[in-house]
Amino acid sequence: MAANEERSVGIVMNGVTGRMGYRQHLVRSILAIREQGGLRLPDGTVLRPEPILVGRNESKLASIAKEHGLDRWTTDLDEALKAPGAEIYFDAQVTSRRVDGVKKAVAAGLHVYTEKPTAEDTETALELARIVNAAGVKAGVVQDKLFLPGLLKLKRLVDGGFFGRILSVRGEFGYWVFEGDWQEAQRPSWNYRAEDGGGIIIDMFCHWRYVLEEIFGPVRSVQALAATHIPERVGEDEQPYTCTADDAAYGIFELDGGIVAQVNSSWTTRVFRDELVEFQVDGTEGSAVAGLRRCRVQHRSTTPKPVWNPDLPATEDFRSQWQEVPDNADFDNGFKAQWEMFLRHVAADEPFPWDFLAGARGVQLAELGLRSAREGRRIAIPELTL
Ligand SMILES: NC(=O)c1ccc[n+]([C@@H]2O[C@H](COP(=O)([O-])OP(=O)(O)OC[C@H]3O[C@@H](n4cnc5c(N)ncnc54)[C@H](O)[C@@H]3O)[C@@H](O)[C@H]2O)c1
């Protein structure tokens, strides 16, 4: 196609009435790409995404479409998959509905891009990866945390050799999710029911797999303790329900090179941190604390020498002894940045590393984390192959 020509790409967006589907994927990614005038491909063509909204609730879909000046929406997935110009299927439904949605889309010949986790167990996630591969369609899984400014800066430090030998990583993720009785919960109730695909391990360990591996190295074992600290919550229907899924997980991961990563994930903790997730990395030459946006470092040459003395108040302001890592780059919304990569993968055959096997590896860490918690032991992580 000649330079400066436009071409549209139809994207069937399923689950667009949900938290992630609406805010991060429709508004902050696809509509943002449209607002910036489309996506320029290497040959000069401008790609214009055309969303086709799919959901269960007609009135919600109609109101989203109206608010954003869109005219293509339906509650019938089969109809959407056959719509003229539909090339990509995107899935941000509740996890338990993902496999069926993706299978249908692949059978209809569409490329597929999906939220994590790709499935609720490793075997199904692998089977889905095989189906997608055999169909020869382009496929990708959301791995948004890699695009967080704080973690991009952390990766830059690792690549630049700042840490010397990395010893350990300590991650704190979480915040208080209201129980839904005297204040409305800020997460959907299915998150707290195992039978509906909920649980913080299945939700977060998928992320920890790619975060740990892409920044530090392969994860070789997992040991986790899962807890359901809040046994009963109140749902969207204002009725109490029993929580059957873990709402906090205390995990230890062994990485290549003897690196020990400890990550706490919790919907039952109150934040006394600067950001909702933070990782402290300690190395022989220096340490860093990275969050969603910020990253601070302390080099060995500026490391203080505290002496333990509980009889005296703290003599130093430890937090002020760290240095801010500058951005030195423009950071776009991570979901949008990854969407742009996927669209280039589909339309210009550019590489996209996070396929359904990568998605299955995330599910595997979650599944083995849950097993470790059930059996009370550390579990080695076998290589996954298609
Ligand atoms: N990448 C991330 O950081 C991130 C963050 C949160 C959630 N997620 C993933 O995104 C997906 C959606 O999560 P969410 O928090 O947006 O959930 P949500 O409950 O807000 O949205 C769920 C969507 O699925 C649809 N749905 C279909 N069948 C349903 C059913 N039986 N019950 C309830 N909803 C049903 C809903 O209509 C809605 O559009 C999940 O798979 C979750 O793991 C990813």
Produce the secondary structure layout.
Layout: E1 6-14, H1 19-35, E2 39-40, E3 46-54, H2 58-67, E4 73-74, H3 77-81, E5 86-91, H4 98-107, E6 111-114, H5 122-135, E7 139-141, H6 149-159, E8 166-174, H7 200-215, E9 219-227, E10 232-234, E11 240-242, E12 248-255, E13 260-266, E14 277-283, E15 286-290, E16 295-299, E17 323-324, H8 334-348, H9 356-375, E18 379-380
Helix pairs in contact: 1-8, 4-5, 5-9, 7-9
The protein binds nicotinamide-adenine-dinucleotide.
Description:
The protein is α/β, with parallel strands linked by helices and 386 residues long. The protein contains nine helices and 18 strands. The strands form three sheets. The chain has a nine-stranded mixed β-sheet with strand order 17-16-15-14-8-13-12-9-18. Strands 1, 2, 3, 4, 5, 6 and 7 form a seven-stranded mixed β-sheet that branches. It has a two-stranded antiparallel ribbon with strand order 10-11. Helix 4 links the parallel strand 5 and strand 6. Helix 7 packs across helix 9. The longest helix has 20 residues. It is globular. The protein starts with 5 loop residues before the first strand and ends in a 6-residue tail after the last strand. The mean pLDDT is 97. The structure holds nicotinamide-adenine-dinucleotide (NAD). The site of nicotinamide-adenine-dinucleotide has 20 residues, from helix 1.
List the ligand species.
Answer: nicotinamide-adenine-dinucleotide
Number of strands: 18
Radius of gyration: 22 Å
Strand arrangement in the largest pleated sheet: 17-16-15-14-8-13-12-9-18
Please state the average pLDDT score: 97
Helix-residue proportion: 25-40%
- Please count the helical segments: 9
Structural class: alpha/beta
Low-confidence region ranges: none
Element pattern in H and E: EHEEHEHEHEHEHEHEEEEEEEEEHHE
What's the end-to-end separation, in Å? 36 Å
Major beta sheet summary:
9 strands, mixed
Shape: globular
Q: How much of the sequence is in beta strands?
A: 15-25%
